Amino acid sequence: MPEYLTPPVSPFAIAFDAERLTLSPEGPTLTRRMSDLEGLFLDQSAWAESAAGDNPVVYTVTSSPVPEINRELPQSITTIFPGATAGELWMTKGHQHPDHQGEIYLALKGRGGLLMFDGERVEWLDMTPGTIGYIPPGWAHRSVNTGDEPYAFLAVYPGGAGHDYGWVLTHGMGSRAYLDASGSVDLRPYAG
Ligand SMILES: O=P(O)(O)OC[C@H]1O[C@](O)(CO)[C@@H](O)[C@@H]1O
Ligand SMILES: [Fe+2]
What single Pfam family name could you report for this chain, choosing any that match (predicted)? Predict the structure, then answer.
């Protein structure tokens, strides 16, 4: 498995293929299955049934080899597969940066949304190829696939900001994403 570069990192070029969704050289890759998303979907029994059943891959994250440490600026490509659990669209776990720092996402393929929550306010950005979504410091963020093909985006994020997944379990994300009868995104109050 590819690893992160050892700091101090020297200048280098990364070949970014927005069609094949690859970064070269490549760092670590992770795969999140349904069982990794415990406590996140509203319908816990539908989640449990899926996780105990075929336990599908919900999303993958491919990273560049830039290490996740302070002052470095790693990149990753996240691909969320299309699907819904009891109607709730497949999504990333979502996280807050313990060290409040900003982040940018560039949509590459498919159709998605960027849900952000600062503990009080909720924001939703529609993400289609070419959209840059800006995540300001202090806003927890989650990505959602709103289409019927994989939704992929490039992230560039501060390596020392960290990932606090517990924040989302405690505070929620403000809204949950569904589709209405016409196929439009239907954001519902978080409730649970
Ligand atoms: O970390 P989550 O919430 O699973 O989201 C998917 C990916 O998005 C990133 O935050 C990139 O922004 C990765 O660090 C992360 O693994
Ligand atoms: Fe982040």
Answer: GPI
pLDDT digits (tens, 9 = 90+) for 126-136: 999 999 999 99
70: number of Cβ within 10 Å: 13
Nearest ligand 1 atom to the CA of 32 is: 4
Q: Which atom of ligand 1 is nearest to the CA of 94?
A: 3
Query: What is the arithmetic mean of pLDDT over 152-177?
Result: 98
Joined together, the tokens standing for residue 131 give: 């959209």
ipTM: 0.95
Q: Which residues have a beta carbon within 5 Å of ligand 2, which is an ion? A: 103
Domain 15-189 has CATH 2.60.40.10: no
Closest to 113 in 3D by CA, of 103, 123, 121 = 123
